[in-house]
């Protein structure tokens, strides 16, 4: 199964594709970031994000997708722009007829590191270890997107195990 993880943002949206094998091992297929230029009008930035996402969808044809939920504490302006980017991502994934799972930052941290309040460096290092990479993926947004994909694969695995116990 190939999962596309997305860490949405207006300036930088991270993406990561993770494949799981029958034995449960995980492989990073591709990862990176869609970057839009500061000062570009918001509609243009969102159109660039949408176009870049569609290119990745056509290139890799993932089976499912997972997107990080919006989290912001103080800066409402940033929260709104990230929400706009997240909306464009959700639209693109829905138009591709992909199943879309959504996870909070704490759910992603818990799934990848075993600790819901893990710091960014801990999560990134666990992504490197779980995917057997030589170094932590760059930029940070790509590592975060890979973590979202890993979170979804762990979540799916747990659901399958729970279904087996209930039968």
SSE diagram, text form:
Layout: E1 2-7, E2 12-20, E3 26-35, H1 42-60, E4 64-68, H2 76-95, E5 99-103, H3 105-113, H4 120-130, H5 140-166
Parallel strand pairs: 1-4, 4-5
Antiparallel strand pairs: 1-2, 2-3
Helix pairs in contact: 1-2, 3-5, 4-5
User: What portion of residues is helical?
Assistant: 40-55%
- Global outline: globular
Q: Which oligomeric form is depicted? A: single chain
Please state how the strands of the largest beta sheet are arranged side by side. Answer: 3-2-1-4-5
**Rg result:** 16 Å
Q: Please mark out the parts with pLDDT under 50 across 5 or more consecutive residues, or reply none.
A: none
Order of helices and strands: EEEHEHEHHH
First and last CA, distance? 24 Å
> How would a crystallographer describe the biggest sheet?
5 strands, mixed
Overall pLDDT level: 91
Beta-strand portion reads 15-25%
């Amino acid at each position: 199964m190939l999962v596309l993880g997305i860490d949405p943002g207006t300036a930088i949206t991270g993406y990561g594709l993770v494949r799981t094998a029958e034995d449960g091992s995980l492989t990073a297929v591709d990862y990176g970031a869609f970057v839009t230029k500061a000062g570009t009008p918001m509609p243009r930035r969102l159109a660039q994000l949408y176009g870049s996402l569609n290119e990745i969808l056509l290139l890799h044809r993932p089976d499912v997708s997972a997107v990080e939920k919006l989290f912001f504490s103080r800066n409402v302006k940033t929260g709104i722009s990230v929400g706009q980017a997240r909306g464009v991502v959700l639209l693109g994934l829905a138009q591709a007829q992909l199943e879309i799972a959504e996870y909070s930052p704490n759910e992603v941290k818990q799934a990848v590191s075993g600790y819901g309040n893990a710091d960014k460096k801990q999560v990134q290092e666990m992504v490197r270890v779980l995917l057997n990479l030589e170094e932590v993926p760059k930029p940070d947004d790509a590592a975060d997107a890979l973590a979202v994909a890993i979170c979804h694969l762990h979540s799916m695995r747990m659901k399958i195990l729970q279904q087996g116990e209930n039968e």
